[in-house]
Amino acid sequence: MTSVTTLSSAPDLRRLYATAAFHRGNDRETVPDERVVLSGIRVDLGELADYSRLCGFSLTGILPLTYPHLLGFPLQMAVMAGDGFPLPLLGAVHVENVITVHRPLQADDRLDLAVHAQNLRPHRRGRQVDLVTEVSVSGVPAWRGVSTYLARGAEHPDATAGHPPPLDGLEPVTGTAPGPVWHLGENTGRAYAALSGDWNPIHVHALTARPLGFSSAIAHGMFTYARAVATLAPRVPDRGVTSRVWFRKPVRLPSTVRLRSVVGPARTLSRLESADAEVEHAVLEQHW
Amino acid sequence: MATQPSPRKARRAAVLGGNRIPFARGNGAYAKASNQDMLTATLDGLVARYGLAGERLGEVVAGAVLKHSRDFNLTRETVLGSRLDPHTPAYDVQQACGTGLEAAILVANKVALGQIEVGVAGGVDSASDAPIAVSEGLRHTLLAANRAKTLAQRAKAMAGLRPGDLLPSIPQNVEPRTGLSMGEHMAITAERWGITREAQDELAAASHQHLAAAYERGFFDDLVTPYLGVTRDNNLRPDGGVEKLAKLKPVFGKGQNATMTAGNSTPLTDGASTVLIASEEWASEHHLTPLAWFVDAETAAVDYVNGDEGLLMAPAYAVPRLLARNGLALQDFDFYEIHEAFAATVLTTLKAWEDPDFCRDRLGLAEPLGSIDRARLNVNGSSLAAGHPFAATGGRILASLAKALHEAGGGRGLISICAAGGQGVVAILEA
Questions:
Q1: pLDDT at res. A172
Q2: A61 touches B at CB < 8 Å
Q3: What residues of B act catalytically?
Q4: Quick one: CATH architecture of A1-159?
């Protein structure tokens, strides 16, 4: 029996992070059967404008493909901070994300959000879990996001690999189009944290990232992903789209990165890489 | 021996339709939207309405009056962020409040000459997201410091900075040469022509009534796309009658003769508009019906600095030249779209055309142009009600007039737009 927690407002992420260190996880084999829902929320146009500016979207009145993730993130955190959630809250790494847009969301739509966890499974380097965010308007499903988080821990060398990123199509064309280059400053993580509320210490500053195993602050995956989506947005329909990203090597801040893309009639395939093309930061595939 | 190329015969350019976002009063609903945001939303709305996604158009021409230096390629950047084929070229134009109509003239002329088959003309302005520059003193200091080769030279350059240089330079709605605002200029002209407060308030009230009625009958359903929660021009006051307007205090002009109020002057407004213009062939290939034909256009300018003419009087000169070239009388029109920068602008222009002295001495006409049937003036409302995002006004008027002519089953319309710098842009449409 699924337990449903109905929130009246978005959870306070600062409080969740303040107590995050106490959510150490456990060795349960399944995630709690729980849904967290928040109904009838309205997008704040000022926040939408700031997000659009930071990530490079035009403020058109249609929500950017990645924006509902921002709205669902506090609910994801609430699920992961719940008693009995098997993975620790701190240090979990976003490894993959899939977004499906059934119909475009307008900036003035009243959105109903529901988040649940599923599919706890072993990973080569620990365990991973999917956090599913569903957005509907007046009962009609519009948007679905699946965020996969990895908690490093006991290794599972024989864990079946997930769906691998389809890189083959990208190779022959890299080098023709330069693609956009982004200079991501040391403050990038703080700028995105201020908008998203995702103050995970690994993004904030080198000093707060070090105890968690990173030599510098790293960019939010959802930020670099959003910038890539924004660049491609004019070539991608606003409905019937599935957008998938694999986060590979973190983007250390500050950094200069480049997005190389192949844009086809029903698909885009992109690679976010370091300026010298040595490091693959992310692979992004969208199809419709 | 080189053969002389024969000149290509001009053909008709059709206005196929338009799209704009509702205009919003400054520092309100669109306060956080940039010019590029609004123009992109407007262009994408046009693309959606006419099925242009992925199409390569001949060109997109647009502009903004208040423009950030980073927006030097505003229209091309907008095209790259839109659903049009990225192989669509674009360029910016700027002719103050005449920008939108001038952009349309450029596109229509290229279509008429066969240089392009289809194009989009547009304009956008944000009074809210206005550019703020550093002062001239700071700018010169920074440039000098940038040129400096040594630390000492740089320090010397920076030492030249004065505290007052740190104040930013905020754009002002004044004529650079006279230091007078447009309203102050208009007040001088209005007083000279004896334009009464009552006549101005009546015109303003009619603008609101006409615009409200046009919205009520669904006239704007295929001309306007809602944006950021705004569905109608939010300056519109459907219930604002002459009585309410009469209570407002004058804001331009001095003393007893001050007649211009916030109610009979346009407010600072944010918005964008686009118009689709094409050849007859392109329209029929794309199963689109021409709403009206772009017949001809004229621009004029007056010497408002040292000469004896009002800043916003240039259309009064442009229209008779346009009429003469087309063999038309002022009365040969079914619709008149005279941009309401101020109610007094419209009234002065009409009065000048009725005035035998003005028409003889200034326009060189034996007879005055005469009066128009006021029932044909701004029949679907104009800038006093809709608001006036400078460069976006031309596109608003053009698309609305083309649709009105099409609805009427044919006819002829005149557009008249005054612009800063003592300029005027006017055009004729026919259906």
A1: 46
A2: yes
A3: 97, 388, 418
A4: Roll (3.10)
Mapped to the 3 state alphabet, what secondary structure does chain A carry? CCEEEEECCCCCHHHHHHCHHHCCCCCCCCCCCEEEEEEEECCCHHHHHHHHHHHCCCCCCECCCCHHHHHHHHHHHHHHCCCCCCCCCCCCEEEEEEEEECCCCECCCCEEEEEEEEEEEEECCEEEEEEEEEEEECCEEEEEEEEEEEEECCCCCCCCCCCCCCCHHHHHHECCECCCEEEECCCHHHHHHHHHCCCCHHHHCHHHHHHHCCCCCECCHHHHHHHHHHHHHHHCCCCCEEEEEEECCCCECCEEEEEEEEECCCEEEEEEEECCCCCEEEEEEEEC
Low-confidence residues of chain B, pLDDT below 70? Answer: 1-2
Nearest CA in chain A to B41: A60
Residues B397/B415, Cβ–Cβ less than 8 Å: yes
Q: How many CB pairs under 8 A join A and B?
A: 40
Cite the beta strand spans of B104-229 per DSSP E: 118-125
CATH topology for A166-288 is: Thiol Ester Dehydrase; Chain A (3.10.129)
Q: Within 13 Å, how many C-alpha atoms sit on residue B55's CB side? A: 20
Which phi-psi region, left, alpha or beta, contains residue B328 (left: φ > 0; alpha: ψ -120 to 50)?
A: beta
Give contacts of B32 with chain A, Cβ < 8 Å: 45-46, 49-50, 59
Which chain B residues have a beta carbon less than 8 Å from that of A49? 32-33
DSSP 8-state code for residue B154: H
Which among A48, A58, A235, A239 is the top mutation candidate for probing chain B, defined by the most B β-carbons within 10 Å of its own β-carbon? Answer: A58
Say which CATH topology domain B182-217+295-430 has.
Peroxisomal Thiolase; Chain A, domain 1 (3.40.47)
Q: Please write the tens of the pLDDT for every residue from B172-220.
A: 778 888 989 999 999 999 999 999 999 999 999 999 999 999 999 999 9
Q: What is the pLDDT of residues A8-52, one digit of tens each?
A: 888 888 888 877 777 777 888 889 899 999 999 999 999 999 999
Q: In the block, which residue shows the tokens 């940039």?
A: B34
> Would you kindly state where each structural domain of chain B is located, as residue ranges?
182-217+295-430
- The residue to which tokens 């009427």 are assigned: B408
Mean pLDDT of A118-143: 95
Helix (H) or strand (E) holding B401, with range, is helix B393-407
CA separation for the pair B58, B61 (Å, rounded):
10
CA distance B223 to chain A (A): 17
Backbone angles phi, psi at B212, to 5 degrees: -60, -40
Rounded CA-CA distance B409/B431 in Å is 7
* Same fold yes or no, A1-159 and A166-288: yes
Domain boundaries, chain A: 1-159, 166-288
